[in-house]
């Protein structure tokens, strides 16, 4: 038996590895579909009026609007970084819409009956069922489409242990003290160009709070889906694990396959207190 001298013992033969890579790169992108659903999209462009409009649509308190405006004004003083050496066209930040809402509701749905059937079909097709009885075993999911959270599963079940798992927008309304205390404490808007942009226009994301001494009984997950064309998705996730607590959190996202470019700039802030543990991963 002749060994492949290009591979170390125990490694996959180079020929098989190359064939696998070729098959993987030539495979059709199965998440490239779009959902035909009415979406409230604000006009393209970015200025202080747009910031105020986003904040008003989300019915945010004055302190959060001020946070956004400070970030936007700081972003105006910065230049897009070139350290990545990417060969991409210059981004026109005025050619993007910064808010797209497919739910047609001022507040998130209270039950599955209020969720548009097309949104349910979309997440089912993505393998993210929104019905708790069909959800992945041992996993709670916050599903976000474009700029808004569609549904958070097992929210009430987790609350029985004092665990807060909800959309960022809901956390601002229901737990403002926690959000205000920790927002920007890990990634401030002065951190970098895209941190400033996200802080100015962030749409939705997940908020997690694990109380002292509590071990989260299930995996938490957020799934972000971009659907609307010529838009940007600027999610923001904030995870706080108090003393001696534990949580495992998974985040993933997909988007349609389009000829037009879309902008995706996210921030994840994880606050870990004494002897707490957060297992964070992405797919």
Main sheet strand line-up:
4-3-7-10-13
Cα-based radius of gyration, to the nearest Å = 21 Å
Major sheet description: 5 strands, mixed
Count of domain modules:
1
Beta-strand residue percentage: 15-25%
Which structural class do the helices and strands define?
alpha/beta
| Number of DSSP-assigned strands | 13
N-to-C terminal Cα separation, in Å?
A: 39 Å
Summarize the structure.
With 283 residues, this protein is α/β, with parallel strands linked by helices. It contains eight helices and 13 strands. It has one domain.
List the helices and strands and how they pair.
Blueprint lengths: L13 H13 L13 E2 L6 H10 L4 H14 L24 E2 L15 H9 L13 E7 L2 E5 L2 H5 L4 E4 H7 L1 H7 L10 H9 L4 E5 L8 E7 L6 E2 L2 E6 L4 E9 L8 E2 L2 E6 L4 E6 L1
Parallel strand pairs: 3-7, 6-9, 7-10, 8-11, 9-12, 10-13
Antiparallel strand pairs: 1-2, 3-4, 5-6
Helix pairs in contact: 2-3, 3-8, 6-7
Describe this entry's structure for a reader:
- With 283 residues, the protein is α/β, with parallel strands linked by helices.
- The chain has one domain (29-282).
- 26% of the residues lie in helices and 22% in strands.
- It has helices at 14-26, 48-57, 62-75, 117-125, 155-159, 168-174, 176-182, 193-201; strands spanning 40-41, 100-101, 139-145, 148-152, 164-167, 206-210, 219-225, 232-233, 236-241, 246-254, 263-264, 267-272, 277-282.
- The protein has a five-stranded mixed beta sheet, with no helix packed on it. Strands 5-6-9-12 form a four-stranded mixed beta sheet. Strands 1-2 form a two-stranded antiparallel sheet.
- A hairpin with a 2-residue loop joins β3 and β4.
- α2 (48-57) packs antiparallel against α3 (62-75) and α6 crosses α7 (176-182).
- The protein is globular and about 50 Å long.
- The protein starts with 13 loop residues before the first helix and ends with a strand.
- The model is unreliable at 1-6 (pLDDT under 50).
């Amino acid at each position: 038996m002749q060994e492949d001298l290009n591979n170390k013992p125990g490694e996959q033969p180079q020929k098989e590895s190359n064939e696998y890579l070729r098959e993987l790169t030539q495979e059709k992108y199965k998440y490239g579909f779009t959902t035909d659903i009415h979406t409230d999209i604000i006009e393209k462009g970015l200025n202080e009026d747009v910031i105020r409009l986003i904040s008003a649509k989300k019915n945010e308190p004055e302190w959060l609007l001020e946070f956004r405006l400070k970030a936007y004004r700081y972003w105006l003083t910065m230049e897009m970084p070139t350290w990545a050496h990417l060969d991409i066209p210059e981004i026109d930040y005025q050619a993007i819409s910064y808010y797209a809402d497919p739910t047609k509701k001022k507040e998130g749905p209270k039950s599955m009956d209020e969720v548009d059937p097309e949104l349910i079909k979309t997440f089912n097709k993505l393998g993210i069922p929104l019905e708790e009885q069909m959800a992945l075993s041992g996993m709670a999911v916050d599903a976000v489409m474009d700029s808004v959270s569609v549904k958070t599963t097992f929210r009430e079940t987790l609350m029985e242990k004092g665990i807060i798992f909800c959309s960022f927008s809901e956390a601002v309304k229901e737990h403002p003290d926690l959000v205000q205390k920790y927002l920007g404490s890990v990634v401030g808007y002065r951190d970098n160009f895209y941190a400033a942009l996200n802080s100015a226009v962030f749409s939705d994301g997940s908020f997690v709070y694990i109380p002292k001494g509590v071990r989260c009984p299930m995996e938490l997950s957020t799934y972000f889906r971009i659907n609307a064309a010529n838009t940007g998705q600027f999610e923001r996730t904030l995870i706080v694990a108090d003393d001696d607590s534990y949580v495992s959190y998974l985040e993933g996202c997909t988007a349609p396959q389009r000829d037009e470019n879309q902008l995706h700039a996210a921030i994840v802030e994880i606050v870990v207190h004494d002897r707490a543990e957060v297992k964070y991963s992405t797919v």
